[in-house]
Amino acid sequence: MQNKQTEMVLCEPYQPGTTSPHLRMDSASWATTEEPPTDLIQKLSLMPSWGTPLKSGSSSTPRASVYLHYYVLGHHARPAPALLASVYLWGLRLSNQPQMSSQEPVFLARALALTSKGLSGIHPQRVMHNLQAEVLLAYYFFACGRLLEGKYHSAAAVSLSLSSRLHLTRSANNRAPGALPKARDAVEEGEQIHACWIVMVLDTAWAVALEESPHLDYQQHMSVVDAPWPLEMDDYEKGRLNPTALYSKTLHNFLNGVPTSDDGMSTIAMLAKASVLWQRADSLAREWRPDLPRTELNAFEEAFASLDNSIDRFRAILVPPIRIADPTPAMTRTLIVAQSIAHTATIQLHHIPRRGPNTGSRTKCTAAASFVVNILVSVPLQHLGFINPIMGTPWFAACQVIIEEVSAFRLQRVAGLVQEERRLVKLLTRALVVLPSFAQTCPLLSVYNATSVHLSPSDH
């Protein structure tokens, strides 16, 4: 994550009522220039790290950004061209300026072309920067609803991360070198640690959204994570990463409640943990079928109870945004995503139709859904006009649970449930007002604009 003093949010690169003269450049002019005009570069390039309208991650872009305007494209003091093109692409998408967003096809084509040959270049950071570009492109396509292309670039990011052995950064078990040169300092090592976990979040979270398996099983030998949990980026700058510590089975220890000195309480660590739990819940839910043999059913129930306990433990320690000192917009967005998908993991588990009606699971599922929707309606829209496109899935799931619960109340016609029904209808109605605001990066949410016609409070 980049230093707070240089982090910018790209919802509105120009104040209302102002327009850069360069916005009037025609499509041919944009298509024939290597980069946007200098004043637009200043608006589009100083983004939160990873170009993160979406996530926090490596800060190599901001560290190099001070040289953006003094060297030609491709100079080693600047980010690699593929990464710059991907950053510009996201900046254009989030500009809220039709004249700028109309240039997305130009920079998308450029980003794709540069990324496809990025590893064959001579830029000293070509591997990390190409990995960053792949992450940005994956999120871009997911935000556009182009899922197949998003999956392609997600797979490319996973492949680069694995071949670079980012999951073995500071491994106590395997010290063989990877494709990346040894980190020059703690900040660069922090960038590599962040990259490992950012790619894992991309892989695991979108596996759930797409109802597929992740590209990697992070419990298998070849992809076991021995890297430490990520710190906030300014913690690396302040020397808070133990220079001699080695790590082993980070995910295994977390999932099994094994206490370690590496507690992983940064915003990125919490998001990574939430993503892994969500994917595990989804995977277990897909194993369920009503005709499981007794031995398999017993194993399923044991796995269910263990994972449910892990999710409960994590939810209990998950830090809300209001408890973070001086959170940046990127940190707030990260925690909103982590909170939402952690509670959606509970929904995923307790929505399984195990042994018929289960009052305990239904209550827990509804409580988790209410929590997620409360997060949605509490989002400070003036600061967070865009959010990770993965959020369409947990918000959609939570709204579905509440709709089902309201429908169940109306079928039961129990007088004592009238107040609870009205509470849920009111909550969901508020959510339906907010959801379209995020459709720019969460296309799934745009389908929820007509649901409210079925939600007027019933007469009892």
TrEMBL record:
It is found in: Nucleus. Keywords: Metal-binding, Nucleus, Transcription, Transcription regulation. GO terms for cellular component: nucleus. One of its GO terms (biological process) is DNA-templated transcription. It comes from the Eukaryota. Residues 80-220 form the Xylanolytic transcriptional activator regulatory domain. One of its GO terms (molecular function) is DNA-binding transcription factor activity, RNA polymerase II-specific. Signal peptide: none annotated. Its main location: nucleus. Pfam families: Fungal_trans (PF04082). This is Xylanolytic transcriptional activator regulatory domain-containing protein. The lineage of its organism: Eukaryota, Fungi, Dikarya, Basidiomycota, Agaricomycotina.
